Amino acid sequence: MKKIFSKYWYAQSPPLNFDLKMKITTFLLFICMFQIHAETYSQKKKFNFNLKEVSVKEVLNKIESVSDFKFFVNTSEIDVSRKVTTLETKNETIDKVLSKLFKGTSIGYEIFNKQIILKTDNSNLINSIKNKGIAQKKIVIGKVSDKSGMPLAGVTVLVSGTKLGTYTDFDGKFKLELPPNSEKLMFSFVGFTTKEISLSDFTNLNNLEITLSEGMDSLEEVVVVGYGTQKRSEVSSAISSIEGEPLRNNLGNQTSFDRGLGGLVKGVFVTQGSGEPGTGVDIIIRGITSPFSGGNNNPLFVIDGVPFLTDPVYNAGGFTGALNVQNANPLQNINPEDIESIDVLKDASATAIYGSRGTNGVIIVNTKRGKKGEKSNVTFSSRVMFSTPVNTPDYLSTEEWKDNIDLMFRNSVDQLNNGSGYSPFYVQSYFRDWATVTRNSDGSYTYGGLNEDNYDDVNTNWVDEVYRNTAVSLQNNLSITGGTEKTTFTLSLGYLDQEGLLGKDEYDQYNTRFNLEHQINNYLKAGFTGSFSYSKNQSGHQNINGWLNTGILNFRPDVPVYDENGLLNRIENWYYGSTRIVPNPVGLTTLHDKQQKNFTNLGSAFLEAEVLKDLVVRADVNAARFTNSTSEFTPVSKVGTALSNGTILGTSYLSKLQTENSNVIVNLSANYNTTINDVHNIEALLGSAWDRNWVYRSTAGYRGFPDDDVLINASYAQEARPGSEAQFERGINSIFSRFSYNFDQKYFLTLNFRTDRSSRFGPGNQRGYFPSAAASWNITKESFMENIKPLSNLRLRAGYGRTGSNNIGDFAYLQFFNVASRDAGLYAGEQAVGLSGTLPNKEVKWETTDELNIGLDFSLFNYRVTGSVDWYDRKTRGALMKGFYPLESGATNYIQNFADVSNSGLEIDLNVDIFREKDFGWSVGFNYAHNDNVLDKLNTDGLTTSESFYFEEGRPVFHFKGYKTDGIFQEQSEIDALNNASPDGTYYSSLTSPGDLKYVDINGDGEITRDGDYVYLGASQPDFFGGFNTSIRYKNFQIGANFVYSVGGMTQITDASVIGFGQPHQNILREFTDSWTPDNRDARYPRTLVYGNFDNSTPSSDFKFDDTSYLRFQALQFQYSLPNSILNKLSLNKLAFTVTGNNLFTITDFRGVDPSSTGPAASRFARFTSGPYPISQTWSLGLNLNF
């Protein structure tokens, strides 16, 4: 019911100057006019009820909910709480329904324009109306805009205190018929401050102009949580949100949306290991919980309710061993233009309802959808992007390179004459190809300079030859949204044509998505969302990430790209006693024919029914299917490995990979949501989930083809190589629940519980239990806060919960068997069957993480200043990893719960609206995150020698050990003094000479040993990280900027090894020419040698590690929108032009290509840098059209 009141209502219209007869006549005529229309509707509208034990109020509410009738009641005369034993009607009119309802009572009724007034026999209501005049119908007409004057579509307009309302159309206009006694209207829209107006403040209700302000009241924004939504003001957990627009501005030419999260969401650390099109990133939320091989530290992604698997056991990333075929990133196929907003659930009180999938956080992606009452809305956007590689390596020219080789051999001959270093074999077989070195009769050597016959005069810059000067990309998107009062829809199409930075790299992508929701009747709602994406990634190289610089671009510069016949040049290279062919960089990056084709299908459907008042039952089915097909042809010109009479020894190779990953989740849930006495707000959720995942993977290899260009299908191969085929299936059955209560929007309590049963564990260990609780206190609701005017909002939050991980292979508790292949697999002439290298463990169980989170949200000065602070403490117990058996056991490893890991930290974000005017606005934002990671407990029996070097109790995971250095030895006398003081006569090595690194004797025993002087150097994770941004708006112009920073953390610079381990056939970075000589004693680097001082330059030391701190200007955007005066003439709603720059500059002391390519990833190798596929600086021109 819209209005049940305790005193009479009548229109407050000015009195008419009529006599009594005229008043009565006018009144009767007025009644008759309305009665004609009312009788028409009342005769057409029929009701079917079968109600038992209900109150009169409930019956009236029921009538209102299924018709246009509205009731007005004097509750001081009519008892609406009276119980009705039975009310049964079959296709009957309102008259018959009301006659049955009030049979045997003194209650009657009158109909006025679908408005029904209930009265008693002695009611004064009608007489009051006769005396005062009938209530005249009021209609209010208006328009809602933002501060810039842009109309807002889909704004909810409600009569305050009622559910009566409407929505603005695409022009921001609305029209609403007001019920009697309406005093105020409420305007609300996501991302804008809710505004209430008093109708008495307006003289003309036919031309209201309403302006909403952005971002002042974010507390009313809806946040998506597990299996539901909550208002921001009701959230007690650590949840961060971001709109789609700043995310898209952060991407540059990269279209995988996860790349844009860095610096925008507090506590989310993004490591982009490669700038290659189609590749993904590592995302760490609140530290590493699974540090060991195969550990999964990536969050769960939920796209429109459909989970995306990032489980390494099934992950579509990585390699397939010898085939060297890289898979693709499934998140790449989600079009960023479709994203409305992203909610990041971080603490266990929010993620526990996702159970085993929520340990590393949950990133919920909400796509754009139509709005009720919205006219069809067409949006077209297009942008063209121009990308150039950033921080490309600076290698030496030919003359500079020769000068460095000359120095390298000069130092090496000095080393020979000092009585240590190289064997005669090296000198005779290797030195002679590059320089003139003569052995004297007394055994000494004389250096005669470079052998000029082995050098050419050309100067080839391989960086320029391999990279595109400018990679041009084009992206187009089209979307159509709309809705009626009962149906909403969205259709979007997207296309991307992207050039990579290397010559043959091309990436094409097609996206489409459709969403439809329909309110079938007052009790039943249904919806469907479907999306399809196809992408094709073509390149001319194998996976080169990690060795682009040290394996390709450092090719000697004196070799022309092509020989006199126009063929790609190759060179012979003596390498440890053999001669091999080294193809040039252009060949390495163009001769392959590699194609990846990816298909992604997502679908979800739901049916929702309000079976009882406040009780909604929902069933939904979510399905995802990701298919990757990769084919890579390696021509013989690439794989040739040696020379024999001018003949290349090698063969062409074709490798194929097929991966299919399917996931189906069925959820059944019931949600009860009610309010008692206007202050007790209760919500209860109970549901179950059925989750199944199927993975299929096959590999095949073929070699020996007639040519490198035409006959390269598998059918032309001389030999089919052994392939592989694997199929996995796993499942989780779950029960989940949530109970939420708040008292008067002041005190909040949320309890979650989930239990998962996983097929990966054995009997007795399959089920995991994941409870959580969160509470919050809205302090500003307290009476003692009323006089603190500057404080708009103050909210204290606390939460505690448990999540888990089942990140191991399937059925780890069972023994697997392998069927051996080829001749080695035969036993007594029969195919042999043997045990798998991984033995079963029936005791392996869930890895669990408990987390405590305490947070504070605040807003000041009418929400001009908003922010939050969160402190957390996470304890991971029983981290899953492989343990290793002794080799004599015949097995290699088994799965066990081996380690405990802790993460604790602090997160802060702050946003300030400095100016908030109609024509001018300026806002700034800042976020900060710090995480302490400690390996609390470790069973070292489960570690390999290599892993024990990186993991130690009491230290961060992925830390580094090595020697400390104290500069470079300048004089031989200093070395001799240390050797003389050493117990065995050698401080470090007999090869140590002036120009070598000076290692520090940490334990003071007079000698450098690994056991005594290898110390903790640092960790890969940063000390703190985050971002800051600013946005300035002036009339139709807007400019925005975003910066990303990371402070602390370190990584190994593997290129630094070339100083003490030089290879003449390779070029070096200009950075390394600052090496020690007697004339350059202040050099940064030690002396350079030819395959030289292995003992001094190769050990791990702080010399080889760099601080990875950086500040990056990530994004800059200019936008101009045409004013409404022009748009109206063009019949457009919006026409905006944008210029966006990404990755504009980076301030860092890091010597590698990109400091953001390092970080606390799940693999220790991600911390090294020897040439990742570079990221790019991108400028784009864009257009956004809406009509």
From TrEMBL:
SUPFAM superfamilies: Carboxypeptidase regulatory domain-like (SSF49464), Porins (SSF56935). InterPro entries: Beta-barrel_TonB_sf, CarboxyPept-like_regulatory, Plug_dom, Plug_dom_sf, TonB-dep_OMP_SusC/RagA, TonB-dep_OMP_SusC/RagA_CS, TonB-dep_rcpt-like. Residues 233-362 form the TonB-dependent receptor plug domain. Keywords: Cell outer membrane, Membrane, Receptor, Transmembrane, Transmembrane beta strand, Transport. NCBIfam families: OMP_RagA_SusC (TIGR04056), SusC_RagA_signa (TIGR04057). Belongs to the TonB-dependent receptor family. The keyword Calcium does not apply. It comes from the Bacteria. It is a multi-pass membrane protein. This is TonB-dependent receptor. It comes from Aestuariibaculum sediminum. One of its GO terms (cellular component) is cell outer membrane. Its main location: membrane. It is found in: Cell outer membrane.
